[in-house]
Amino acid sequence: MSTTGPDGARVRIRERRYRLRLATLLYMALTLFLAIGAVNSQNNLLFFAFGIAIAGMLVSGLLSASLLGRLGVRRISPPLAAVGEDVEIVYRVTNRSSRMPALALLLVEPIAGERSSDAVIASIPYIAPRGSVRVVARGRARRRGVFPLVGPTISSGFPFGLFGKSIAFRDPDQLVVAPRKLALKVPPPTPAGRGARSVSVAMAREGGADEFLGLRDYRPGDPARKIAWKASTRHGRLVTRQTAALATQSVGLTVLPPPPDDPIAFERTLALIRATLESIGEPGRVVELRAAWLASGTERVGANFAVARERSELLSRLAAASMPDETPAIVVPPEDLVIGYQSRSGVHLAAARLDSICEIPDDATELGPPRDDRERSGWDRLRLMLARIPGTKPAGALG
């Protein structure tokens, strides 16, 4: 079965579900008790209470089910997410009923696979008849990768909450979750000091430019595409946009592969790659990432990390990266910055020392336990875990 989405597209309904709750079972038991009492005693008041109970079940089961069947939903393309950050996905939900409003709705969609507990959630208190609302569902990304989005599920217990009714929509898309964003405590070696190659210089000339400098009077021979028509209308004469090309540097960043079959080392290396890119990625600087072992199209990628489109493309490649089956041989250009897992000669930033060169939050479980936890004994780690639980004694109070 399919329904028309808010933008006219066809959105397929995957399934409808009814779910009995504990309150439903208790309500049904009470209704049965009233029925038995009414039949045995022939009391009119008990018959009236029994009728009210049956009417409540019918209204709760049929009314909200018919309202859910008149809903349409369309997901707006999800943005690029990152591990440990909030995910916000925008939906447009429409009520196609001409008379009845939709009330007390809950929208849920898993963001790390259908069987995952990670999901974005949004509550919708009211949708007017033939109305639509823009809904922002929020959740938290806990794993890196490219995850398929099957479609949201809208549920409601309106009006009495006796039956849990839900309708699942099929709207396939994908969510890209990039590595966790960390900040380097100490900046890496200055690329210019390591032989950064200038590929262009700043120049103030017309054509082929990308930086706005200002406006000037029109001169015969200026290209028509350079005329600022709105500004010309305000000034009462033709004026031309004056631009200049940005200076661009090319900086090499070589990444050595971590030990094979070590997912924590792999995630630490990816997090360090992003932290380095965030640190050296400046306007006008192209970073050439050399990491053929990532097997995600990053054999040699040049990107200006300060440009949103190029930044998103590079982070998407890191999100889709997979562990290598074997460790390839790496040739390191002498002028490149070098990232590796272990500290050794020629490696400027080591992922094994990520705790000391980056600020790592406590919930970064994909990067392994914090360094201070690893250096403690088993009893010390137990005391620390108990001390973090609200309502327990502090670590020093444990014998």
User: Strands of the biggest beta sheet: in what spatial order?
Assistant: 1-2-11-10-6-7
The total of helices stands at 8
Radius of gyration equals 30 Å
Q: Tell me the strand percentage band.
A: 25-35%
Largest sheet features: 6 strands, antiparallel
Report on the structure:
There is one protein chain. With 399 residues, the protein is of the alpha+beta class. The chain has eight helices and 20 strands. The chain has a six-stranded antiparallel sheet with strand order 1-2-11-10-6-7. Strands 13, 16, 17, 18, 19 and 20 form a six-stranded mixed sheet that branches. Strands 3-5-8 form a three-stranded antiparallel sheet, with no helix packed on it. Helix 1 packs antiparallel against helix 2. The N and C termini lie far apart (64 Å). The C terminus is likely disordered.
In short:
This protein has 399 residues and is α+β, with helices and mostly antiparallel strands.
Key features of this structure:
399 residues; alpha+beta; six-stranded antiparallel beta sheet; six-stranded mixed beta sheet; 20 strands; disordered C terminus
Q: What is the secondary structure topology, with strand pairs?
A:
Layout (H helix, E strand, L loop, with lengths): L1 E3 L5 E11 L1 H20 L2 H25 L2 E5 L5 E2 L3 E10 L6 E9 L8 E9 L4 E9 L4 E5 L3 E4 L6 E8 L2 E6 L18 E4 L10 E7 L11 H7 L3 E6 L3 E8 L7 H18 L4 E6 L10 E4 L3 H12 L17 E4 L8 E2 L3 H4 L13 H4 L3 H10 L12
Parallel strand pairs: 4-12, 16-17, 16-19, 19-20
Antiparallel strand pairs: 1-2, 2-11, 3-5, 5-8, 6-7, 6-10, 9-12, 10-11, 13-16, 14-15, 17-18
